[in-house]
Amino acid sequence: MTTPAAVAAAAELVSGLPASPAVWCSGLRKRYGRRTAVDGVSFTVGRGEVLGLLGPNGAGKTSVIKMLLGLVRPDAGEVMLLGRPAGDPAARARVGYLPELFRYQPWLTADEVLLLHARLARVRASTAERLEGLARVGLAERAGDRVGGFSKGMQQRLGLAVALVGDPRLVVLDEPTSALDPLGRADVRDLVLDLKGRGVAVLLNSHLIGEVERVCDRVVVLDRGRLAASGTLAELLGAREVRLRLTGVDAHATARLHAAGLTGRDGDWFTVALPADEDAGTGTGTGAGVGSGAAGRSADDGGAVPDLVRDLVARGVRVHAVEPRRISLEDRLLGILRDAEHSDGGGR
């Protein structure tokens, strides 16, 4: 017979274990006829983490999301949500979802839409809680207005409010800013960061790379149904570049530039890729941290750039300008996709 002391000891042991990921998937595969939409995709989303899902059109991002949520049955692979199998209703009850394409009943008011979805989710949502939810997305003053009169951007905001019904612990957002103006995109950015601060995991699929770079801790890149790359922003953006305006470049100077990592030339401007920062893998991974780091940290924080300039001057090269910069997420994404295309030996 189990004693109270044994139960307490077991509870203490379990409490010391790390929380299970908000999302865990392994080996996801999905075919539609002869076309393979998703091929062996695996990744995790930690509690309180914001993960960006990136890739070109047709990469399999929406198919992956639908398999995670049980809307599409995978041909192979496993999914766990909030520590439970994805098919467990108890797991899905704590998941909020904003699909890319949706439509609400035009005769309902915004408040009635929230009430309907609260009832469908079997959660309590008082009038005050519904008004608070609408206020979070900037629709407090339109609570009593019929949805049929809403603009696309206002409907997008309403969809965000619906996704947050029931205080979910995992929120999946599929193109949440597609119909929003710059102010609306900033509001969504603040909302995502607020969710992160409250320990809510967010899976964000967006074509707006700048938004992903601002709010995401990690990024997963899909290409033609496969995992092309994944990592923290610090890891993916660790590469640095320096642009130099040079004249008098002879063969010896060109050889020195190639040895340093020359990647391109445009007239008198030469672009050199530099080694990643020694601390690139230890960054915070927050969008703010990466953004401020890119602007505030010089690529000249090691010896590579001074040594290169010294050697070029010694070879008779005139150095007119040196412009260090960190590679953007968009540049990194394009590089990953081009590398994947070349490794496959063909075009799209």
How do the helices and strands line up, and which of them pair or pack?
Elements (H helix, E strand, L loop, with lengths): L3 H12 L7 E10 L2 E11 L4 E5 L6 H8 L7 E6 L2 E2 L3 H4 L2 E4 L11 H11 L6 H10 L15 H12 L6 E5 L7 H16 L3 E5 L3 H7 L2 E6 L2 E7 H4 L3 E8 L3 H10 L1 E5 L2 E6 L12 H10 L7 H11 L3 E9 L2 H15 L5
Parallel strand pairs: 3-8, 3-9, 6-7, 7-8
Antiparallel strand pairs: 1-2, 1-4, 4-5, 9-10, 11-13, 11-14, 12-13
Helix pairs in contact: 4-5, 8-11, 10-12
Note down, in words, how this protein is organized.
By secondary structure, the protein is an alpha/beta fold. The chain folds into two domains: 19-234, Rossmann fold, CATH 3.40.50; 238-327, Alpha-Beta Plaits. It is built from 13 helices and 14 strands. It has helices at 4-15, 61-68, 89-92, 110-120, 127-136, 152-163, 182-197, 209-215, 233-236, 251-260, 287-296, 304-314, 329-343, and strands spanning 23-32, 35-45, 50-54, 76-81, 84-85, 95-98, 170-174, 201-205, 218-223, 226-232, 240-247, 262-266, 269-274, 318-326. The strands form three sheets. The chain has a six-stranded mixed β-sheet with strand order 6-7-8-3-9-10, sandwiched between helices. Strand 7 (170-174), helix 7 and strand 8 form a beta-alpha-beta unit. Helix 8 (209-215) packs across helix 11 and helix 10 runs antiparallel to helix 12. The longest helix has 16 residues, at 182-197. It is elongated and about 75 Å long. The model is unreliable at 278-301 (pLDDT under 50).
